[in-house]
Design goal:
Oligomer: single chain
Largest sheet: 3 strands, parallel
Shape: globular
Strand content: 25-35%
Structural class: alpha/beta
Radius of gyration: 11 Å
């Protein structure tokens, strides 16, 4: 999701393969926020690739840890 001058990512996909490259190809070098809808690998598995490689303002997650 992109607003006026900020980028948001909702879920990161199942793994980290290529997510940073994909964001950078789109000109995204920072994210205002990342929203993880629930703690299943297919929604949050790619988060670890992003952390440390792209500046993230906030990370939100549901309390669904089952």
């Amino acid at each position: 999701m992109q607003s006026e001058n900020s980028h948001w990512l909702i879920d990161t996909g199942p793994d980290s393969i290529g997510i940073v490259d994909s964001l950078k190809k789109r000109g995204v070098d920072s994210l205002a926020g990342v929203v993880i809808t629930h703690n299943h690998r297919d929604h949050c598995g790619g988060l670890w690739e992003i952390i440390g490689k792209i500046k993230i303002g906030h990370i939100w997650s549901s309390q669904d840890y089952a």
